[in-house]
Amino acid sequence: VPERLVVVGGDAAGMSAASQARRRRGPDDLEIIAFERGDYTSYSACGIPYLIGGVVEEAERLIVRTPQVFRECQSIDVRMRQEVIEIDLDRRAVKARSADDGDETWQGFDELLIATGGIPRRPRLGNSDARGIFGVQTLNDGVAVGAFLDQRVPNRAVILGAGYIGLEMAEALISKGLQVTLVDQRSQPMSTFDPDMGAVIRQALTGMGIQVHTEESAVAFEQSDGLVTAVVTSERTLPTDMVVLGLGTAPNTEIATAAGVRIGPSGAIGVDPHMRTDVAGVWAAGDCVEKFHRVARKGVSIALGTHANKEGRIAGINLGGGDATFPGVLGTATSKVCGLELSRTGLNESEAADAGFEFGSATIDSTTRAGYYPGAADIKTKLVFERGSGRLLGGQIIGQEGAAKRIDVIAAALWNEMSVGEMVNLDLSYAPPFSPVWDPILIAARKAVQVVEG
Ligand SMILES: Cc1cc2nc3c(=O)[nH]c(=O)nc-3n(C[C@H](O)[C@H](O)[C@H](O)COP(=O)(O)OP(=O)(O)OC[C@H]3O[C@@H](n4cnc5c(N)ncnc54)[C@H](O)[C@@H]3O)c2cc1C
């Protein structure tokens, strides 16, 4: 009798794990059943803003692998529109409820992988069920926003939350001709950046014609005939034709918590580097799990597809009989709003302070190409480092086309615990169409060394 692996959640982490386990163990050795409560498996949520903005033409283009492909090519029994509502660890079984007829069934497992992702934060305000208020968490959400834009042709949108999803949605809606207002309760857009970088981002957003209201929270929605007509904030009333919620997610730990699986201090499921929970035979991966931050040296909850895919792969290798560990994260992330590219890695100044570092920082302005080369555009690079040792702690980049992915060099240096002094002589490539002779990262490292040396 083959062993049975049950996967809860059929997206990035869950299906990466299932595929990886299948590659290592055939169907005679391992039966794999995956429960997914939604309509799609393995799709790129990251592409939703580009679907809504029309950069990607069809929702199907975001689907990496359909349930049929999993069933036919990988012998993975994908059960769609089935929500796992309970895990019984004594019986080693999960209870699933069908979204179509409400039928509930039990399914036993030998190994269980929890890959339930995140729950989008939604404000509990008056009229929050009005039409025209959208989350953008799932592909269905994205399709619903697209249909609303086509049918209603709205003129104005208010986006709650000025994090990266809020900004990407701002770009999508501007490209559809809407006037966009961003509202965030924090003091700046993109609060994962330091305030000086946040000020630059705010200025750029305003320059794009986006209204930005910070230190303001939504307190109610107004509606007429069931359709949203305004967002009332702590400061003003913003008339609007639609609202997009980009308030981030919390780890979806409900069924794990109810079953008694350990939850870490960050509020996500606690796992060891093999992606094992504290319950034998129960594994977890993706946005629902706590990650080890390699610089802060503590557990964090960060929702990123990059991490989810890697963690799923590690869990799958181990479930497939291999031995792999996940070494942790730096929180490297990148995004774009219209012509502005943003990226960050490691700790910003307030995170460095929280982690107990005595830190310094260096910020430089440069260009993405040689100054004389057509298309050379601005790039601002900031490094945060430990005073004394000069050990790199984090980096932030804001700039035009060609800026954002430079963060990967900083991330690689950070991963390898380099100091800013060691970074100065990194052998980075140079040709005029791609960078000045001193790459902006090297210029930033030189300035950082000056600060370290006083
Ligand atoms: C608009 C948007 C843009 C993004 N852009 C980026 C980006 O540019 N870069 C990046 O790195 N990340 C990005 N992300 C984040 C990335 O999409 C997530 O980190 C990633 O999808 C997490 O994968 P996951 O498998 O852990 O969780 P999810 O993708 O959330 O998958 C969890 C799945 O589990 C299912 N599920 C949950 N509970 C149950 C249950 N009880 N029973 C059955 N099924 C269940 C859900 O329906 C869902 O399909 C973006 C996210 C959004 C929404």
Structural features, described:
This protein has 454 residues and is α/β, with parallel strands linked by helices. The chain has twelve helices and 25 strands. It has helices at residues 12-24, 48-52, 67-74, 139-152, 164-175, 195-207, 254-259, 305-319, 349-354, 407-415, 420-423, 440-452; strands spanning 3-8, 30-36, 76-80, 82-88, 93-98, 104-108, 111-114, 118-120, 133-135, 156-160, 179-184, 211-214, 218-224, 227-233, 237-239, 242-245, 249-251, 282-284, 291-293, 298-300, 333-337, 340-346, 359-367, 378-386, 392-399. The strands form seven sheets. It has a five-stranded parallel sheet. A hairpin with a 4-residue loop joins β4 (82-88) and β5. α1 runs parallel beside α8 (305-319). The radius of gyration is 23 Å and the shape is globular. It starts with a strand and ends with a helix. The model has no long low-confidence stretch (mean pLDDT 97). Flavin-adenine dinucleotide is lined by residues 8-14, 35-38, 45-46, 48-49, 83-84, 115-118, 136-137, 165, 252, 255, 286-287, 303-306, 308. Residues 8-14, 35-38, 45-46, 48-49, 83-84, 115-118, 136-137, 165, 252, 255, 286-287, 303-306, 308 line the site of flavin-adenine dinucleotide.
Alpha carbon gap, first and last residue:
68 Å
Small-molecule binders: flavin-adenine dinucleotide
| Average of per-residue pLDDT values | 97
**Given the helix and strand composition, which structural class is it?**
alpha/beta
User: Tally the helices: what do you get?
Assistant: 12
Q: Count the beta strands.
A: 25
Order of adjacent strands in the largest pleated sheet: 3-2-1-7-18
Q: What percent strand? A: 25-35%
Low-pLDDT windows of residues: none
Helix content: 25-40%
Write down the overall geometry: globular
